[in-house]
Amino acid sequence: MNRVGDFGLSIAFFALFAVFGSLNYATIYSLAPFINETAITIIALLLLTGAAAKSSQLGLHSWLPGSMEAPTPVSALLHAATYLNFLNIILTQIFYIKALTHQKGRSSPSIVGGRQSPFFQFKNNSYNKSFHSNAHHTKVGIRREGDDFFIPWKLTSSGLNALNSIKKFHNWLPLNSPIRLFIDNHCSCLFKTEPGLLGEYHTNINKSYFTVESMLKNNKLIDCANLRTAKKAFSDINNSYIYAFINKDTQKFYIGSTINPISRLHNYIHSWSYSRQRLLLEMRKTGGGFKNYYFFPGFSVPNYLNLFTKLNPTIKLNPKDKFIFNCLSEYHVRLLEQSIISFIKPDINDINVAVSYSFINIDIINYQPTKSRLKSHIIYAYDK
């Protein structure tokens, strides 16, 4: 029975790491509200089985009488007493994690942190009334959330840390600050996690939108052989974008995101022949060069710095204000990028590496952003 306990605890710890990407209590507690309740129940049962066997509970106690007959019965009693305390601790943790799964209801989408196994994915049956999904999509009527239509959210540990960071930045701003008022009026969805991230059940991006077949038929597709200037590639250069590059011969493709589309595409056009970035290495080594690709502008979301400047042209922003706005934009677009990559699994992306965020763990009080100039125009670089 001791081996049963060892087996149960081992499988439980492996399952925890597979679902949460960590064995850290803080990470598990933070992600628990977004995890499939069935997965949590299975892990809880495995932990309970292991703890019950190791603490010699009735029915799983057969190892204890044998140990009592050994030359050192006192050690057996101490062993059982120690694991009895262990059982209490495990039960407390199980109760707390299970309570968190009910904290925000079970209408949230398949969102997990760290590494996700298909076994733990689930669909819900709640309903959502009509909404405008994006400028690129039309209005959708009442529908069932379980219908395989939109890309589900994917929350990683990095995404959760980024969410906590932008919350800290928001709380740091004075209550009467025009920056904070703008964020409360135009960016409040970024802080929401119910019924899903950004306050939505899903990403609002059609599951077929970033497939090769769909992108090759889209009238926004651009032949890189004819792409000379970045400005002509985007319908609105003031937005953030999730974009794609598709190889003409192999149809292998790459999905990326940027809050500064002009600068990003400018760098691709002019540095593909020597850059060590993953996509550009692929272009140079096996892809046939930049001209052998199509560029797809993809999906746009607001760039909050540009939006604020447009709506408040008379307000002068300091570097920290601009930094916070860019962090909000980066969180929004990269959250979508992670979800799309996790679902579509593009060939050139490293799908085993989570999308990163540049502003995690930055102390906004002591942080001093610096301005630097790229070839295309001035951007703000964030150096610790």
Q: Please state the CA-atom Rg, rounded to the nearest Å.
A: 25 Å
How far apart are the termini? 53 Å
Order of helical and strand elements:
HHHHHEEEEHHHEEEHHEHHEE
Q: Classify the secondary structure makeup into a structural class.
A: alpha+beta
Strand order within the widest beta sheet: 5-8-6-7
Mean pLDDT: 77
Share of residues in helices? 40-55%
Largest sheet: 4 strands, antiparallel
| DSSP summary: helix tally | 12
Poorly predicted runs are 103-147, 372-384
Say how many strands there are: 10
The coarse silhouette is globular
Tell me the number of structural domains: 2
Report on the architecture of this protein.
This protein folds into two domains: 2-101; 119-384, no CATH class. Helices cover 42% and strands 11% of the residues. The chain contains twelve helices and ten strands. The chain has helices at residues 2-20, 25-31, 37-54, 63-68, 73-101, 157-172, 178-186, 212-217, 261-271, 278-285, 304-311, 319-344, and strands at residues 127-128, 131-132, 139-140, 143-144, 222-223, 239-247, 253-258, 293-302, 370-373, 378-381. The strands form four sheets. It has a four-stranded antiparallel β-sheet with strand order 5-8-6-7, sandwiched between helices. Helix 3 (37-54) runs antiparallel to helix 5. It is globular, with a radius of gyration of 25 Å.
